[in-house]
Amino acid sequence: MSDQECKDEYIRRIHNVQDYIEHHLGQSLSIEELSNAAGFSKYHFSRIFHSMLHEPLAHYVNRIRLERALFLLAHRTDKNMTDIAYKLGFTDSAVFSRAFKNYHGISPSEYRKEYSKNCKDSFLLSEYNRNTAKKGWVGNRFPVTGQITIVSLEEKQMAYVRHTGTYETLAKAYAGLIQMLFVHAKNQHLLIDRQNWILAIYHDNPEFGEESQFRTSLCLTVPEQIPIQEDGVLGKMKLEAGLYAVGHFQIQQEQYSNAWNYMYQEWLTCSGYVPRNSYPFEVYRNNPSVNENHTHEVDIYVPIEPILF
Which of 28, 78, 228, 244: disulfide with 301, CB 3.0–4.6 Å? Predict the structure, then answer.
């Protein structure tokens, strides 16, 4: 195995444990559990994780939990402090409140109150292409609208490559990452005519996360009967089944921000649904470079569940 192949294998295992943490935040997440998910000895795993991500394991888990807490406090007003504490793996609301205040410098209840009071006037939900988006909203609150449908999605298996960093660095790396995804998928015969979705999953909410730590997975869905071999470049994961609001848009490159804002600020607030604790994603339906106006046909999937009164 070459040096690069060894490095790719380490990266794949770290991606696996990141995915495991994301889907098991309500559990204790012991070092034994996480080292098993990564396939490393527990005696060395913490050092390996720190060296690969430049962040201690305990700090990483705590950060992901407390960034998710911001989202739940802001958008899940049907959940009280105890509900949120248990959902994120804290033993009780007091422990959660102390951890939240130590990390964010404000108590959970104070944050929820301030967000409720200020968010509609001061915040653009999506920070993608932020300069263009803020200029566009000055004269027109919703310059982009789309047709919204509700779908119940079955679980899908996916091959993916992952980027960690800002959306600016993602934009620069995007073409190379997509090429890498397709080359490795082709080598494994994963490309099936008209059956593969191309999508981008945003694991971290840009409203709350640390920008340099944003994780984005560029994915290709693969029929269940076809095995995906994790080869050091490609990883495999599941697209979560469940209820989704799907916004169907025909937009220009600079309008993605407006489309996301329409989904969350215009449609969702009046829909009778709240965001489900899972990640949103974009599905790309065309190649914009081959049409005259470079129009992007994109579906934005937001995981939802009914509001319970």
Answer: 244
Helices (H), the chain: 3-23, 31-38, 42-53, 57-75, 81-87, 93-104, 108-122, 130-136, 167-187, 256-261
As a whole number of angstroms, the distance between CA 9 and CA 174 comes to: 21
* Side-chain-facing half-sphere of 226: CA atoms under 13 Å: 18
The conformational region for residue 89 under phi > 0 = left, psi -120 to 50 = alpha, else beta, is: left
Query: How do residues 224-265 score in pLDDT, each as one tens digit?
Result: 999 999 988 899 999 999 999 999 999 998 899 889 888 877
Q: How confident is the model at residue 201 (pLDDT cuts 50, 70, 90)?
A: very high
DSSP bridge pairs for 273: 306
Please, what's the b/e burial string for 172-194 (b: 16 or more CB within 10 A of its CB; e: otherwise)? ebeeebbeebbebbeeeebeeee
To the nearest 5 percent, what fractions of the chain are helix, strand and coil?
A: 45, 20, 35
| Of 58, 281, 45, 255, residue with least CA distance to 158 | 281
Residues paired with residue 305 on neighbouring β-strands, in sequence order: 274
Question: Tokens representing 113?
Answer: 């109150």
For the chain, which domains are there? 3-119 (1.10.10.60), 147-306 (3.20.80.10)
> Which residue type occupies 246?
V
Distance, in Å, from the CA atom of 99 to the CA atom of 94, rounded to the nearest integer, reads 9
CA atoms within 13 A on the CB side of 249: 27
- 65 contacts 88 by C-beta, under 8 angstroms: yes
Count of C-beta atoms within a 10 Å radius of residue 309: 5
